[in-house]
Amino acid sequence: MSDVCTSRALTTPGATVLENREIARGTFLLRVDAPEIARRILPGQFVMVRGPGEGSDDPLLGRPFALYEVRRDASGEPVSLDVVYLVIGRGTAALSRRRPGDRVDVWGPLGNGFGPSPGPGEAVFVAGGIGQTPFLALGREWLGQASHGDQPRETGTPVSAATLLYGVRSADLLAGVDDMRRAGIAVEIATDDGSAGRPGFVTNLLEERLRSGEKPAKVVACGPPPMLAAVARLAREHDVPCDVSLENHMACGFGACFSCVAPIVQDDGRPDLRRVCVEGPVFPADRVDWSKPSH
Ligand code: FES
User: Fold this and answer.
1) Where are the beta strands (DSSP E) in 87-143?
2) Bridge-based pairing state of the strands 218-222 and 122-128
3) Which of 191, 214, 242, 247 could form a disulfide with 235 if both were Cys (CB 3.0 to 4.6 A apart)?
4) Residue 259 Cα to ligand 1 middle (Å)
């Protein structure tokens, strides 16, 4: 498979699907043969994946998926990449029907990704819904177990521990918990219906930790906007650094369509609309104007 270089990202047309299996209710792990993208991509960056047309224009649009993890061969060379996605519309439904050996178009890496590890303290990740997907690669990197990308960059000091606070509606939607634990990331679960972990909002788990006096080196959150706003408020109240990864709707993924904009506070204190696909998806939580609806 040859990768074609575009202005910022690589495009792998007709990348081979190596695996596409349901790992939780309506939640699939897709592994694609895109070694050049796998070599470059960083935790928090994403790829666009476009499946087959299947007689409709809509699935021809790409869908943005955060890096779940890079797969490597025995010598450590990146050979493929994994994303985890939830079936929520025609495009992802069409993608879920792809089988090993089928082809998809993949382009990326896109977006800014997470910053350097904030160690030596603890990192706390907060995920809601399908928002857990960026935290496997990030946790492995911040724990010092893996490095990503092929360019020199500041990697920071490894964290002493990483914990994922993971909230879903019900236990059958939990995806990747074993992968996280195998990577040394502690996982605490909250479910809306109490079918696993603690009943209630995942933000309650964070609030208890912060109220008990815990002072993580950083909190990082990914999930629905109300959860992100609550995490941002808690981090601000407890004076803990916090980044959020926004999941805005995206059409092009490379800055051309402005479908993904979010209100981001600028240096002069005023919010301005910024493209999440180019300037994000990761932003300091105190730079997002939570008073204005995003997408
Ligand atoms: Fe098109 Fe961001 S998705 S500009």
Assistant:
1) 103-110, 117-118, 122-128
2) parallel
3) 242
4) 5
The verdict on pTM exceeding 0.85 is yes
Q: How far is CA 84 from CA 68, 76, 245, in A?
A: 6, 22, 16
Neighbours of 174 (CB within 10 A): 22
For residue 98 the two structure tokens come to 């792809």
Chain centroid to Cα 33, Å, comes to: 19
pLDDT band at 39 (very low <50, low <70, confident <90, very high): very high
Task: Among 63, 254, 274, 294, name the best residue to mutate to test ligand 1's pocket (greatest count of ligand atoms within 8 A of Cβ).
Answer: 254
**Topology, domain 117-245:** Rossmann fold (3.40.50)
Q: Return all residues near 2 (Cβ < 8 A) that are at least 6 apart.
A: none
- Model confidence at 293, pLDDT cuts 50, 70, 90, reads low
Per residue in 107-117, pLDDT (tens digit) is 999 999 999 99
Domain assignments of the chain as residue spans, ordered by start:
6-110, 117-245
Looking up tokens 């790992």 gives 23
Q: At residue 168, does pLDDT exceed 90?
A: yes
Distances (CA, A) of 11 to 20, 58, 95, 249, 289: 20, 20, 18, 21, 33
Residues lining ligand 1, CB < 6 A?
250-253, 255-260, 275, 277
Question: Are 15 and 103 spatial neighbours (Cβ–Cβ below 8 Å)?
Answer: yes
Count of Cβ atoms closer than 10 Å to residue 257 Cβ: 13
CA distance 251 to 194: 35
